[in-house]
Amino acid sequence: MSQLSEFCRSLSSIAAKRNIRYLVVAKGGKDWAAQVIDAFAPLYPNPLFCGEPLSAGMDAIPFKKAKLWLGRECQMLTFNGHNGLDAQALGALSGTVVGGGILLLLLPPEWFANSDSNFNNRFSQLLQHPEVVVLEPNSSLPALPTPDLGEVDSVVATEAGLPFGTLTACQASAVEAIRRVVTGHRKRPLVLTADRGRGKSASLGLAAASLLTERNIKIVVTAPSFAACQTVFRHAADQFGVSYSNQKFLELGKGSLTFIAPDVLLSEMPSADLVMVDEAAAIPAPVLHTLLSRFGRLVFSSTVHGYEGTGRGFAVKFRQQLDKVMPQWRAFEMTQPIRWADNDPLEKWIFNALLLDAETASSGLNPNTAQFECLDKGQLLGSHNLLSSLFGLLINAHYQTSPADLVNLLDDDSLHIWVCRNGDNVLACCLIVDEGGFSPELAAQIQRGQRRPRGHLLAQSVAAHLGISEAAEQRSGRILRIAVHPEFQQRGIGQQLLSSVRLWSQQRYDFLGTSFGYVTELLHFWQRAGYQPIRLGLQKDASSGYPSLLCVQPISELSQQWFAKARILFAIGLTTNACEAFREMATEEFLPLLVESLSLQVMPAPLPSEWVEHQLSIYSQGGLGYELVLPALQQYLYHRLTHVGPSAEQATLLLAVAKVIQRKTWQDIVQQFQLTGRKQAEQVLRDFVCADLKKNSIARSE
Fold this sequence. Notes:
By secondary structure, this protein is of the alpha/beta class. Helix 6 (200-214) crosses helix 7 and helix 15 (440-447) packs across helix 16 (457-466). It is globular and about 90 Å long. Residues 149-158 and 698-702 have low confidence and may be disordered.
């Protein structure tokens, strides 16, 4: 046996005895990487390879599909970084490695040299940790990690006498807490939180099985996707000895276990004796709040430090809501790992490298002495405490903060970071990204919906949704995130931070803007800072559960020229769509925007004719969309019918009147005019506008 094979066998033995996992780095070319893989392969019969395969025919998971493997397990994860590292995939798949296994990271030698990537430089520094095993060709093998013989009790094994099929005392207590939601008083929901590998979803399944054994009960499980909660069903089925093949409905014991998607659960309101909400942090807050009002027995579970976001922000904000509506709610946090032992080297390293466990600063904060400044990327790279404090604040403020955001903070030159801080302790932060500055040709293509340059949401939205192409030509700054430490909110710090950003932006941008899930308090916050709404999204945002509201603050005279037009288009679009696109919107949310629109005093004055023809011209070429161009369509049709009257194109004119004036549903339009679907119906409408514009013109007839 070669020295390399013997070393790998010894390392595997140590990991197995301690029930821990190691990070192993194969630093060298692809031939060396293949040798290291071959040395470990006989020791781990259940491997997983992620990234570009080393050879043809090798089974490998692309980085982009890493998420599909969540919930599965492997003994050896090989992660190929020869063509670049994907932090999101690394964070996702590291949790699939079970105790006794390894994460084998393949990196070329040149990757360790100073590069243009701050993230890579920081990452390579962290690889020098004593518990990271680095293997290089033509170099001596490193010393084996020394086992701590005092940690034998850290090995997870089934403890004698534990109920419900649980593996640890912590898991048994979690199952008991879940059961009390059913056996105890109503209106006392449970919030169950845990890091990955603690058996949170398994605990839901074990609790469901125990309840189904004892009573006739209907348990409903909901989650962002069925894949996110399959572990619940698998563990419940195992307790009854039932084979499981991804069924969404199981009849077990005296009752049933059913998966129902969150939107269907709210729309159909099925009867349920218990509702389990798995990965609750990834479900929009309005959905969670509605569940609270409609079901009496609820369990909300969430991952605290996750690969694609965190439940920390969820835990803080949702608990505040629970305190208001159900003050007798309970919380349980699972801390003991099940897939691996406590103090697992790989978990500690991944958490540190990707800052998954970053927290807000807990001391050294004083608003009276804090400084407002735009950070340099080098400052973040040079201070772990500053980076961790900043990232912890972002995690606390938004559950979707992820490893990809960490990469952007360190490497994206178009991203600017404003902070309010006391030394390394961050009180508040604001992230701004450069957008726009496109050529007139590209701006025109964006306006027509033909091009969508990645990462330019603000510039694209004004051009493509309002038909104002000059906004895409101008330089803009989009505020991605703004966050204030939870202990210092409502003190004006956020407003001071935005004022600093405004002054800094004067020589940089033509306008500033932001897009957020619309709630009235957020609108008021942005309006106090000088931002005004110019577009309300037609659909609810997938993450927030609210329609997105786009707000802009003009800076240069160039942006002032189109801003007034954008405000009028917003006002008329909102009122025109009130009974159609915004019909389902809560009235208390719609009312402030309606009042805002009416305050512009543009109703019922019509749009200028040149605006109408400009928008309809874009629409006829495939840009905008029905809802976006509806005000112009409506005005054009009224004018056309008044001044031109019916014409030979009677059928298409009838379709236009039925939809635009009578506001019939697309389904009714399709059926009435014998079309194949909405897509064809809207194309008929576009073709009608295109042909009619060539014959008739508001501007020419006035």
